[in-house]
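Posting here for the record, re: adenosine-5'-diphosphate.
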Amino acid sequence: MKGGNIVDNIILSVNGLTKNYKTLCAVKNLTLSVERGKIFGLLGPNGAGKSTFIECILGTKKYNKGSVEILGMNMEGSKKEICKEIGVQFQVDFFPDRIKVGEMCEMMASLYKDTVNWKTLIGKFGLGDKIKQDVSKLSGGERQKLSVFIALINQPKLVFLDELTTGLDPRARRDVWKLLKSLQKEGLTIFLTSHYMDEVEALCDEVLIINNGQSVIAGTPDGIVEKSGMTNLEEAYLYYIGEEK
Ligand code: ADP
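Prediction output follows.
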């Protein structure tokens, strides 16, 4: 592995990251590390700075201060190597309209040298019988599942999932959770954002709550609930972002 001043077990390490938009400080001095095989949740209300933070991590936005290492490498020196090892969930609106599910998967798979056998795996996502269907004719939930599936097509070591089950019905959400848990068991590291605290409790090993670009609290979901003195993560979350006394 390249780089390597990093503990081998740490897949993602962010140190003191700060991003300003003119006079607005959207992300202020955020630090985190994600261990191999863990599911990490970045939480915060709309406008908290989550997307900005993730884009800085992925190198699609320049940041003002701080450092990011993914698998012991940084984007400036090793962008190509990093991109081979990570998966990113695109929002479903990015999908071209007149493309079939199978064509979309084939196109995404063709971008990488090593890919999963997507025709086998897509069945696990409940999309096996949709391969010939236009993406535009999928239901909202199916499109959402497809976007998660596509993020996994290059067999990433680390995957970024943004509001991964928004729009899914309760059964489909649980199916996605189960799949992600099974991929975690196979060694996948997952970085996700979610507004659903039941999802975070079901999936995440570690959580960072941010508000106004700043870290509010980090820890395990149970640890955060305990520290807050509340009875569940949703109450604790609202407490920490100042919506609940
Ligand atoms: P979240 O993903 O948590 O909803 P964002 O990262 O999208 O938060 O936004 C954080 C803050 O930065 C918000 O106040 C938002 O209005 C602002 N912001 C986001 N993108 C830009 C931009 N390109 N230019 C200026 N301000 C931005």
